[in-house]
Design brief:
By secondary structure, the chain is mainly beta. The protein has no helices and 32 strands. It is globular, with a radius of gyration of 19 Å.
């Protein structure tokens, strides 16, 4: 395979890139590093539009999919909402915890939920604090939204809870004693999947009734990546340097043999499907990047790229034409996606 190289934009920051996110209109790229710096880039004119210090040590950053808003959280126990048009601070809240380590916007951009130790906090797009939940049994390890944006799920050692938008009490509790490292709600709303400490994926069908959950095992390490395509047909997961693909298409994959993709030489660090397309990109600790396309019952690898260090995050532009890449060494690169053969 001939390595692909079509760089549109590059930048080098001072620290680990936590996340790179595109604005909803696709005009700007927003990055956040672990040193607390947020930068807004006009990648097409190759310039920094604005930058500011959000926290002394930042742990999470997320951009609204619908509005010009970014939310951040840090080791200072604060979570903040910023306007990307005026670069003004709209809200600054103190969490009931020493840290804020995850932030996820609802699909409609009306709300953001943040993990604050053993609790979660829900804010609206104006920055108003709707509620902070009571304590979970342990630290909230992952958060995901229902595709309709009307509820969200939290995972911790002890199970999965589903919360609504008005009350801090959970709508449903799905108990399960295990350490969950990742979680994702399928785009069709039919499954919640949780990657575990003991090398499994635990699924809760929705709507849930006790005893309906099931597991997929056989992994060689911790499952930290759960990535669905837009139609909820495929679920991509990590198994060290391999990508394991389960086919759902609205039904349980129990009993099937998954596909295994072994194009990477080092441990997988990120996988991202296009927003609407059938292609995805995967990255590894050595800086390797691969592009894949689903074709009938097979997946075609049709492009390769390499960064100088471990890739920490990926983000497709809203039109799926460009991919932003962040690394643990502070490098950011935007490339044009290779054309399908």
């Amino acid at each position: 395979m001939t390595p692909y190289n079509s760089e549109l934009f590059t930048s080098l920051l001072d620290d680990y890139i936590l996340n790179v996110c595109w604005s909803g209109d696709g005009k700007h790229l927003i990055s956040g590093d672990s040193a607390g710096m947020v930068q807004v880039f006009d990648v097409f004119n190759r310039e920094v539009v604005h930058e500011w210090q959000a926290h002394d040590a930042m742990l999470c950053l997320a951009v609204s999919p619908q509005q010009s808003l970014v939310v951040s959280g840090g080791q200072d126990g604060r979570f903040k909402l910023w306007n990307l048009d005026t670069f003004s601070l709209l809200a600054d809240h103190q969490a009931n915890s020493a840290w804020v380590e995850c932030a996820v916007w609802s699909p409609n951009g009306n709300y953001a939920v943040l993990g604050t130790g053993p609790r979660v906090a829900l804010i609206d797009s104006n920055g108003k604090l709707i509620y902070q939940s009571e304590k979970h049994e342990s630290t909230v390890s992952s958060i995901c939204w229902h595709p309709n944006g009307l509820s969200f799920a939290t995972a911790c050692f002890g199970g999965v809870r589903i919360f609504g938008l008005t009350a801090s009490e959970p709508l449903q509790n799905m108990p399960w004693k295990n350490s969950m490292l990742s979680m994702s709600w399928s785009p069709d709303g039919k499954f919640i999947g949780c990657g575990t400490q003991d090398s499994r994926i635990h699924f809760f069908p929705q709507p849930y009734e006790f005893g309906q959950d099931f597991e997929m095992s056989g992994y060689q390490g911790k499952v930290k990546i759960l990535e669905w395509d837009a139609r909820a047909e495929f679920l991509l997961t990590n198994c060290w340097s391999d990508i394991v693909v389960w086919r759902f298409a609205g039904q349980s994959p129990a009993g099937q043999i998954p596909w295994t993709i072994d194009e990477h030489e080092e441990k997988i660090t990120a996988i991202r499907y296009q927003n609407q397309g059938s292609c995805f990109a995967s990255a590894d600790e050595g800086g390797g990047l691969r592009f894949f396309h689903a074709q009938a019952e097979d997946l075609l690898c049709y492009g390769a790229y390499r960064m100088r260090s471990c890739i920490s995050c990926l983000a497709w532009s809203p039109d799926d034409l460009h991919l932003a890449i962040g690394t643990t060494d502070g490098e950011i690169v935007v490339i044009r996606a290779p054309e399908l053969p």
